[in-house]
Amino acid sequence: RPRLATASHDGTVRIYDAAVGVCMQKCVGHNGAVYCVAWSNGGARCWLASGGQDATVRIWDATSGRCVAVHGGHTGSVLTVEFSAGAKQLLSGSDDNTVKLWPVEEPSRKPTKPKKKRRKVAAGEGA
């Protein structure tokens, strides 16, 4: 069934059954507004990532709603998150002017900086 994820100023992430509009999971953990969410696009599990005002990136098990990882390397609000193909890494961008690359399967590892190569980046979001 199609699902929809929302970010909220009350600090929660909610996962809805898009066909009927029913909230299936309420993910609680951020300390402040949540500004962005992203679904994993591959891999063995279905993950949902979120970022927000508390400068953290969180990874949720989209089936259970359980937080499986919290990454705290930013010093400003996290404004965007996006999984790599295969969901092995998670990219986050913050208003602290940094971009970080997080290992999804090894949550205890520190983030890496993306390689300094000029590349065009495009992100498609919308209805």
Automatic annotation (TrEMBL):
This protein's UniProt keywords: Repeat, WD repeat
Region described as Disordered: spans on this chain: 101-127
Record's compositionally biased regions (Basic residues): 110-121
Highest taxon listed in the record's lineage: Eukaryota
Keyword ATP-binding appears in the UniProt entry: no
Pfam families named in the record: WD40
Spans of repeat WD: 27-70, 71-112
Position of the signal peptide: none
Transmembrane segments: none
PANTHER family in the record: F-BOX AND WD REPEAT DOMAIN CONTAINING 7 (PTHR19848:SF8), WD40 REPEAT PROTEIN (PTHR19848)
Designated name of the protein: Guanine nucleotide-binding protein subunit beta-like protein
UniProt organism field: Zooxanthella nutricula
